[in-house]
Amino acid sequence: MIIALEIGLLYAIMALGVYLTYRVLDFPDLTVDGSFTTGAATCAILLVSDVPIALAMIAGTVAGMLAGAVTGLLHVWGKINPLLAGILTQIALYSVNLRIMGNRANVPLLRIETLFSGLREDQLLGTWISVALFAVVVFAVGAMLYWFLGTSYGVGMRATGDNELMARSQGINTGVTKIVGLMISNGLVALCGTLVAQYQGFSDISMGIGLIVAGLASVIVGQAIFGMTAVWQAITAAALGSVIYRGVIQIALNNGFNPNDMKLVSAVLVVLALILPAWGPLKNLRLRRRRNKALMEGASA
């Protein structure tokens, strides 16, 4: 189960990127499947070429940001539907990622110095120490995202997602805001790709396939359980949702399911997370909590 916690915390960074587009910008971005692999492929090929780990990770993150910029430009300047813009970029990235990896489908990192080499040599991976370290990294990334969304530009980005026409009437350049939001989102996804590639010891052309489902499942499940009233609460819920999602996947694997069933399990999990909050008893419970919270705030005022 500790392995599931580690993987869930690693993918929490990806979930934060999906949260930014899906919840904040209200932009259904499917670039994620491609930009994740772009970050992993760029980092892996640079590590094999003896580039320092930090520079390789930065390059992978920037590559993901460029992928997000392409989707944003296709939508904003090309007037292409958001879903189609993401699909087009995702398809193009498959060929780009193969080029990055030297026309190979897989780049192994087993004998290459990576960010996790020290932990692996000291046999700390798969322990509570590594879980704590990963949690600190996720907390730092989440705190930076929270800080950004609290800045004037971040508030403008949130306004763009809430009501684009109103935001535009307030002088916000919503087109540029969308492009920047997509760049940050896919940068986080690509950063997650660089970490996952180093953690598992290879970069593979198919490692990002279906990742958007995992990202949406993490965000939806987390916010269905923990709520999303405040920004910090929504960010925390997205990160914890990733851990819960990976835990459910691990439980499914331990109880007779095989890896080929995981996409089905993910889809069912998302459906349940979408349906259950609207189910009578749970809906009444949620409304009762909100009412009690409002009464408490009124009494304290």
Supply database-style keywords.
single chain; 301 residues; mainly alpha; ABC transporter involved in vitamin B12 uptake, BtuC; 13 helices; 76% helix
Short description:
By secondary structure, the chain is mainly α. The chain has 13 helices and two strands; from the N terminus they run H-H-H-H-E-H-H-H-H-H-E-H-H-H-H.
SSE blueprint:
Elements: H1 2-24, H2 32-48, H3 53-76, H4 82-100, E1 106-108, H5 117-121, H6 128-150, H7 152-162, H8 164-169, H9 174-200, E2 202-204, H10 211-226, H11 231-254, H12 262-275, H13 280-300
Antiparallel strand pairs: 1-2
Commentary on this structure:
The protein has 301 residues and is an all-alpha fold. It has one domain: ABC transporter involved in vitamin B12 uptake, BtuC (Orthogonal Bundle), CATH 1.10.3470. Helices cover 76% and strands 2% of the residues. It has helices at 2-24, 32-48, 53-76, 82-100, 117-121, 128-150, 152-162, 164-169, 174-200, 211-226, 231-254, 262-275, 280-300; strands spanning 106-108, 202-204.
